[in-house]
Structure formats: structure tokens, C-alpha cells
Amino acid sequence: MRKILLSAFAATSIMIQAQNPFFQEFTGTPHGSVPFDKISVTDYEPAIDRGIKLGLENVDAIVNNPEAPTFQNTIVALDNAEQELNRVLNVFYPLLSSLSDDAMMELSMKITPKLSNYSTSISLNEGLWKRVKEVYDNRDKFNLDTEDQMLLKNTYDSFVRSGALLQGEDRDTYSKLSSRLSELTTLFGQNVLKEVNTYEIWLTADDLSGLPESSVEAAALAAKEKGRDGEYLFTLDQPVYMAFMKYSDRRDLREKMNRLYTSRNMKGEYNNLPIMKEIAETRLKIANLLGYDTYAAYSLQQSMAQTPEKVYELLHSLRDAYRPAQQAEFAELTEFASKLEGKPMEIKPWDYSYYSNKLRNAKYAYDEEKLRPYFELNNVIDGVFGLATKLYGLTFKKNPDIPVYHPDVTAFDVLDKDGSYLGVIYTDFFPRSSKRPGAWMTSFKDQKITADGVNVRPHVTIVMNFTKPTGSKPSLLTPYEVETFLHEFGHALHGLLANTKYSSLSGTSVLRDFVELPSQFNENYLTEKEFLDGFARHYQTGDPIPQELVDQIISSSQFGAAYACLRQLSFGLMDMAWHTIKAPVDDPEKFEQEAIESVAMFEPIPGTMFGSTFSHIFSGGYAAGYYSYKWAEVLDADAFAHFKEHGIFDQETADSFRKNVLEKGGTEHPSVLYRRFRGQDPTIDALLERDGIKQTPHPGKLPIPTKD
Predict the structure, then answer these.
(1) Which of 404, 468, 586, 694 lies deepest, with the highest CB count within 10 Å?
(2) Whole-angstrom Cα distance, residue 111 to residue 114?
(3) What integer is the mean pLDDT of 66-77?
(4) What is the mean pLDDT of residues 137-152?
């Protein structure tokens, strides 16, 4: 009887394994794409458990290998050890951001300590560390090319930075801190998503003055879906909020929306204040344990900047260059608003978008709503994809046979200039309650070249929260949304064009203050007539965008540049403040105000802050790294200036950018790659010129440490 029961149990176990899509290669779909239609939430945990088990077995095989440690049997073997686990996580985490529900979030909290403990067990594996160190110490004896050397260096550094040199109780402490940090960062991100979905602002027809037809239609449709015809439902989803703040004539309602938006996650069930404090304190403890005074000092070792001092040098130089221009901008805006209202006005945070939009319209006859009809989403897709065709010869073909994870998602085959298969890109454009705010790119499969020479091509996804279509109109984008599309598509190209041996060095796996170069570089094309003429057509008449509207985009591109710069600097300074602490923070709201005081443009509003929803630094990968957006902005302006010298679609320049930047991933130091493309180090000149900022003397070269 016992044998029968055991046999039945074994048969059931085998059947369950056979039914789990992650327990075998994805062979039944085009290009081995993810079979989303066959995956359920219950599949993830057993697949993750299996991936952890196989990863540990692979590590044990490396440790117990009787042969002397070599680059292949230790470093490459370790790089390949987590393939099965990564195959699951490369699906789970992207969907946790774009198609989440309570079950996914609960599962995330459940697996987080498992994954943290697994990661720590590897980084603190004494036998594995000895083999890695032996290879590193004898690296000159191996015939390693540049990419091999980078993989070896990264592997060695990751062990040291993960506590491999720690002894005794310090190892246990590091393990506990790492596990707790994983839990906290996951919880922070979940709280942001959960709270934003709780906000419903119900308005009547009397409250809609100034709002564009597209916003009114969307609000009416949202109310109708809730069974409340005749009312209007507004949320704090980014496109809804931004449109309301820009167009609503009702200052009282703008203030209400702004206070709601900037007080999120500061109290109640989803209060992030104690969580962000503990995250910062935990990071500080980890840094101290590893011998650093601050978390930023620890983190920036793996960056182009290298030190907090270099980051502050950049942020302060930009602050000093842009501050006078921002003050002039605000003086002009205050005078304009006062004349418009017929009384003295003080610009508040809920006024800036509204009055600056009207001032821009007055100066340049610029009205984003008049531009929307020329940016119908399908046309924009053709234009943005077409940019990659002109620059790199790529083509994109819809493939309806590739499973997708939501009806809004579309999958495309990507072909290279010779017609060969290059990869897959998924597009996911519209907001939904299961998707976090913002925009991002990630990958379901990373590029690599296998030992037998097979070039495994990547599958990437770009996710956004664009204006949704209504019953009477398709999705019509603002120039800002087109710019966002260009940005994320730049990240996608970095992934799609990757051509490296190791997946851990491919695509966007670069130093984080270099990762935004390809994305921000793409944004430059939004103000180029030669680019816009290729796709910007009226969705009803088919007429190309008039020259005067193109001129408006171009002439107004510098409008508010100083405000935008200081706003970004405030985020960077806030991030650095949280990650250069040497003691716990008592009052997060006061701490934030003091951190950004030198770039603040408004008087602080009690009960509001940004940090409580700052997912980039508290639950994303930008801790002590948000400055990288401005760092990369200097790079992208300098890079695009090089294109403009030769022509924005110049093939030789594009080929160089592809070969030396997009294909190389993290195989060499970014300073070397950039200098190889540009022929010189970057300077701040191009950014100042692009933004219309004049300064004498200008700051000169960007403070990037030279790597020869």
C-alpha cells in the first residue's frame, strides 16, 4: 500500500512539473518567447524554488570541481549558474510592475526573503569565493579578452561588495540586513501602487472649466464604467493628473489635486515614511559593515562618477549655471500670471503647469492640444520605430502568434538591416489599475552568445501610461508623451542591439550613470523637423503637421528649461541626502526640505513631500544614482551635437554609435566607449547651448574620471 501511495505521489509530482511552463524550455512559441497564456500565478513559486535549487546545485558543482580554478570552470560557470532562476524572475518582476494584483504582491513578499537568502548564501560561500579569488589573483595567466576581463572584474567586485571579506558575526549581520532591505524595498513599491489606486476625485460639469475635450471624455468614460453617468471621475494616474494641473481653470481644484498627489504614502495603511527611514538606515548599516562611511560612497564605486564628491560637483555646477535663468523664468511667469488675473500673484506648486502653459502659448502660440491630432499613437509608433530604421536599418513586424500578457500589449519581430532576426519587442501603452505609474523598459530574455556560438537574441518590453483612446477618438499623444516613447525606445534599442558573450554584460547592464545615454539621446529627435515630417500627420485628414506647429515645438523647446533642470536636481540632491546620512533621520519631511533648499523653487507646503513615493531610489535601482539622469543628459547633448555636425541621420555616425555604445553593453568602461564614439571627452557646452543657458565661464568638461 505504501509503495502504491508513493507511486501515486510521484506521478502527481511529475504531472504538476509537466504542467508548469517554467519547468521546460519555451519551445512552443515563436523565438522561444514567454508563453504568457499558459502561465498562472501559482506557477511562479514552485518554479522559483526549483531555480534556487538548481542554482545551488550548480554552485556546489563549481565549488567541488576537483580541477584547479579557471576562468571557464569558475567565472563562466557561475555566470551561467542561475539561468533557470533568471528565466522565471525575468517574467515575474516585469509583470509585478505591469500586471499586478493582490496575489502577485503577496507572492512577491513571500519570495523576497527566499531570494535574498539565496543570493547571500552564494556571495558568502567561502569555497566559491576562494575559487573566484584564485582566478582573479592569477588573471594574467589566462588568455582573457576585454569582455572576459570585465566579467572577471565584475564577479570579483560583486563578491567583495557583498561581504565576501567579512568574518564571523559580521557575515550573519550582512545576511540579515540584506534580507530585510529586500523586504522593505518591495513593500515600499507596493504601497505606492496600492495607494494611487485608492484615489477617486468625482467632479461635475461645473468643475471642468479649461480642461481639454480629451480629458473630459476620459473622465466621463471612467465614471460611466463605475455606473455613474453624468459625473466625471479623475484619478492620480500620471497622464490624468498632469493634464488637470496644466489646463484646469479652477485654482482650488488644482490645489486639491496637488496636495493629494504630493501627500501620498505619508500616512494611513500605506504610509511609507517609516519604511523609507528604515531603508536608508539599513543601507547605511550595510555600507558601514563593508567599510564605507555612507551608502553613496559604497554604491558610487560602481559608477562613472565614483565618489559622492563628483556627483555633488556635477549637481552644484548645473545648479549654479541654471539658477539665474530659473529666477528670470519665475519673474516673467509671476508678472504674466498677475496681469492675467488682474491682481498680484504668487506662483504656487499647483500654479506652475497652468500658467507656464498659458505663457508658452502666448509667447509661441503653443498649444499641446492642437498638436495631439498629429500624434496619433499608431503614427507615432511608425515614426519612433522608423527612427531605428533610418539610423540602424531595423524593421519591425507585428507577430500575432507571440503570446502577450494583456490585450493592450503588442509583440513585434525585430529584423536587422540584412533581414536577419534581431529580437522581439513588446509594447504596453495604457494605464490600468494593475500597472504602476510611469514608464520603463525591461527584458524577458537577455542577449548572449553560447559556448557553441549561438547568438541568443533578446526579448524586451517598453511600458508606458499614455492617454487612452475614448469612444470618439484614438489615443492622441502630447509631445511629452512622444518624448517618453522615444526615451524608453532608446533603452529598448540598447537591449535589442546588444552583441556580447555574456548576458550579465549585455544591453542595459552598464554602469547606471551611463544607462540613460541611449534613451535620452533619442529624445533629441522630437525637435527635429526632418524626423517629425516622417510620421506626424493629422489622424482625420492625413495632412502633415504644419510647419508653424513644428516651429512652435522647436522654438518652445527651451521654454522652462531652467525649471526642469532644477526640478531634476532637487530629486538628485534628495537622493544623495538620503544616501549620505551617517545617522538615522528623525523627520523625513523636514529632512527633504533641507536637502533641496538650494534648488527649491517654492515655499515648502506642510504635509507634502516627494520622497514617500520616490520609487526610483527606495524600491528601484537608483539609490544614490538619480543624478545619473543629469549626468547622462550632458552626455546625450554632447553625443547629439556630434550627430548634428554630420547630419541627424548620418549613417557613419549612427554606425559608430551602434558599434561603440549600443552593441557593447557593459563590456568596457563607459568613458572608453564614449570617447571611442565621440573622439573626445564630453563637455557641458552642448547642454547649455541646447537649453539656451548662457554662462561665463562655462563649467567645461564633465567631471568624468579618465579610463584609458
Answers:
(1) 468
(2) 5
(3) 97
(4) 96
Total residues found in the chain within this entry: 708
Q: Cα separation of 535 and 691, whole Å? A: 26
Selection from 689, 573, 101, 134 nearest residue 316 by Cα: 573
CA atoms of 473 and 496, how far apart (whole Å): 33
Average pLDDT over residues 107-132: 92
Long-range pairs for 267-271: beta carbons < 8 A, 24 or more residues apart: 268/195, 269/195, 270/191, 270/192, 270/194, 270/195, 270/198, 271/191, 271/612
Residue from 199, 201, 271, 319 nearest 576 by CA: 319
Residue 265: closest CA among 610, 618, 620, 622: 610
Q: Exposed/middle/buried for 368, CB within 10 Å: 0-12, 13-18, 19+?
A: buried
Q: Is residue 672 within a helix (H) or strand (E), and if so which, with residue range?
A: helix 670-678
Q: Please classify residue 17 by burial: count the beta carbons closer than 10 Å to its beta carbon, then call 0-12 exposed, 13-18 middle and 19+ buried.
A: middle
> Cα torsion for 273, 274, 279, 285, to the nearest 10°?
140
Strand partners, 396: 414
CA–CA separation, 587 and 307 (whole Å): 27
pLDDT value, residue 553: 81
State the average pLDDT over residues 245-250.
97
pLDDT at 346: 96
Residue type, 177: L
Span of 167-176, 270-279, 328-337 with lowest mean pLDDT: 167-176
Task: Check: CB of residue 152 under 8 Å from CB of residue 135.
Answer: yes
What is the average pLDDT across 480-484?
A: 94
- The residues that are catalytic are 488
| CA 613 to chain CA mean position, Å | 15
pLDDT at 3 over 80: no
Q: What is the tally of helices (H) and strands (E) in the chain? A: 28, 9
Which three cell numbers mark 695? 554662462
SS (H, E, C) 362-398: HHHCCCHHHHHHHCEHHHHHHHHHHHHHHHHCCEEEE
User: DSSP H helical segments within 438-543, as ranges?
Assistant: 479-496, 517-523, 529-532
Amino acid identity for residue 213 in this structure: E
Question: If you average pLDDT over residues 510-516, what whole number do you get?
Answer: 90
Question: Residues 155, 132: contact at Cβ < 8 Å?
Answer: yes
What pLDDT shows up at residue 50?
Answer: 97
User: Is-contact 525 531, C-beta < 8 A?
Assistant: yes
pLDDT digits (tens, 9 = 90+) for 386-420: 999 999 999 999 999 999 999 999 999 999 999 99
Cα angle, residue 287 at apex, residues 284 and 291 outer, rounded to 5°: 135
Determine the Cα–Cα distance for residues 368 and 476; give it in Å rounded to an integer. 11
Structure confidence at residue 695 (pLDDT): 47
Query: In this model, does residue 204 exceed pLDDT 70?
Result: yes
Q: Bridge partners of 460? A: 425, 443
Nearest to 545 by CA among 457, 477, 615: 477
Residue 206: pLDDT band with limits 50, 70, 90 = very high
Q: Percent of the chain scored above 90 by pLDDT?
A: 81
pLDDT above 90: residue 524: yes
With 90 as the cut, is the pLDDT of residue 617 above it?
Answer: yes
State the amino acid at position 681 in one-letter form. D
210 residue type, one letter: G
> pLDDT tens-digit profile of 93-109?
999 999 999 999 999 99
- The pTM assigned to this predicted structure is 0.80
Helix axes 352-364, 308-341, angle to 10 degrees: 70
- 3-state SS, residue 638: helix
Which of 547, 539, 422, 443 has its CA nearest to residue 492? 443
Among 516, 504, 662, which residue's Cα sits nearest to residue 90? 504
Bridge partners of residue 411, in order along the sequence: 426
